[in-house]
Specification:
Helix content: 40-55%
CATH architecture of the largest domain: 3-Layer(aba) Sandwich
Shape: globular
Radius of gyration: 22 Å
Structural class: alpha/beta
Strand content: 5-15%
Oligomer: single chain
Number of helices: 13
Order of helices and strands: HHHEHEHEHEHEHEHEHHHH
Number of strands: 7
CATH superfamily of the largest domain: P-loop containing nucleotide triphosphate hydrolases
Strand order of the largest sheet: 3-2-4-1-5-6-7
Number of domains: 3
Amino acid sequence: MTPAVAEVVARVRAGDIRAGARLMRDLDDRAPAALAAIKALYPHTGRAYLVGITGNPGAGKSTVVDALIAHYRAAGERVGVVCVDPTSPFSGGAILGDRVRMQRHALDPGVFIRSVATRGHLGGLSRSTFDIAHVLDAMGYARVLIETVGVGQDEVDIMAAAHTTVVVNVPGLGDDIQAIKSGLLEIADVLVVNKCDRDGADRTERDLVYMLGLRRGARREVPVVRTIAVRGVAEGSGIAELAAAIAAHRAQAWTGAGAEARATARTAAHLAELVRALLAERATAAIAARGGVAGMAARLVETGADPWTEAESILAAITTPLSGL
């Protein structure tokens, strides 16, 4: 470990906001020094509890997260938040729509909110979500909330990333068959019917309960919580009940019979994502060294060579031993 990396590690472990923010940015950019720092920080992680908040676009995920932050801060907990936002087509950065809804916590020293762009990553998360969560963990944030970008039925990566997965639903997004067929709902440890002051909330809750009744085993025992997150932590918002449902699942996921299996699944998902990211980076470099996709395609057209052989040559180039890792 170089002295510069050792300094970053020490500052992050001490909870230095600037050092943590800079490291998160560098991890998202895949800077070599940042990768060395996260490797050194990893033995000092494992204390934070990760709660994933996911659901369809427009379900009110950001508002639910904002209210949960207020609830946990009232209890004296430090809260880290990772908001996965869509990617700007111009800058390649995050479109900060989710973060705007949490501005009332921006000056709270006990809250750290980091927005990160998907950068084309499917599944509702960003390629650096795991890394940023580890940094927040090392900084001493006991509770880390991970809000996914608005997802569809089969984008379920958050289940592997979080200890507890909360799926937010809202009345009026579809017919009652959606509750039966949606793969997204099947990953839920806690189901939320947000905006339950709207017409159709009773039917949405009933459909979710019916879906749970079709399952076998423990996956049937999933609580359904009604919330009106725009009320924050006020009486009748349902946020206290949601936090209680998360706490009840924590007892099972953190120390219960399934804790070791879930920890293994999280580590396996992180490892798979790291391998995909490394391969993608090396493939991008190999293609650039050959003149880019357009240049390679032009040569194929000119020579009449087949694209399969060219693709195999790129694969051969990126599977040579990595140096320095």
